[in-house]
Amino acid sequence: MRPVGRHGFTLMELIVAITLTAVVLLAIQKTVVMSQRATAAQVQRMNLQQNVRGVGFYLSHVLRELDASEDDVALATSSKIRFRSMRWSGILCSTPVAAGANVSFVVRRSLQQGLRAPDNSLDSILLFRELDPTRRADDRWLVGTLVSAASGVCLDGSSGRSIVVEITGASGGNPAALAGVTVGAPLRGFQMEELTLYPDGDGSYWLGQRTASNSGGWTDYRPVVGPLTADGLEFAYFDANGDVTGVATDIASVGLVVRGRSHSAVRVGNRSPAYLRDSIATRIALRNNVRF
């Protein structure tokens, strides 16, 4: 009987097999690395786009609330804007009456809405005065300070919030509210707010915000949305004719450019790590500007 032949691999066959295996593994590794880089870049790109559009959405929302002709804009530069930022609104369900040195009335609770409840340490108010319903020229928003807010009852017995305010002398003082404000008049609570490009000290820039109490004290700036580029926020101001204006009360629309930067540098393909960038440009029309 012939013995069974015993076969194995030659050294050359082993070298070829190991080489081919290494080439395949390197190709797989490169594919995995490229996929991971592409995924990381896509995540950064999505976050970047959301941040840039978030800045645009927030500014569009707050600026559309403003009426520059009624002094809602206090400061307007190419990199900063200060304005009355609305916090809540309501409808009067009683006529104003004298309350010591102030004025008191009730706001219908079911029609009160906003970001939060009235806060007498933070809020100022805009109270609409309508002297003659047949004429628009005498309509006016009276400016005042919120003194207190508590539970109250409307004239029809429904639930309300009793509001005590002090109308500023520039708006005619408390007599202006007693003489020209009626049931059904709108009331708006606001804080002064300032938005600007804010450096965080670590090389990143953000949409920065600070707010003031009704006594004039300002908070520190805090980052809201970002990061942005070093020139990531730019304002331009236009009157009703579309011309650039430097007069706050003439502003009918605000041009806005937002330039964003990704949180981290990413590698795309075989290129060196770099920050991704995106931008938007828009124009925001202000509310109730009689010249717009």
SSE layout:
Elements: H1 11-63, E1 73-76, E2 80-91, E3 97-99, E4 102-108, E5 113-114, E6 124-129, E7 140-153, E8 159-167, H2 174-180, E9 186-199, E10 205-211, E11 222-238, E12 253-261, E13 277-285
Antiparallel strand pairs: 1-2, 2-5, 2-9, 3-4, 4-8, 6-7, 6-9, 7-8, 9-10, 10-11, 11-12, 12-13
Could you provide a short overview of the structure?
Helices cover 21% and strands 39% of the residues.
Description:
The protein has 292 residues and is of the alpha+beta class. It has two helices and 13 strands; from the N terminus they run H-E-E-E-E-E-E-E-E-H-E-E-E-E-E. Strands 1, 2, 3, 4, 5, 6, 7, 8, 9, 10, 11, 12 and 13 form a 13-stranded antiparallel beta sheet that branches. A hairpin with a 5-residue loop joins strand 9 and strand 10. The N and C termini lie far apart (110 Å).
> Total number of helical segments?
2
Uncertain runs: none
Element string (H = helix, E = strand): HEEEEEEEEHEEEEE
Strand content: 35-45%
**In terms of structural class, how would the helical and strand content be classed?**
alpha+beta
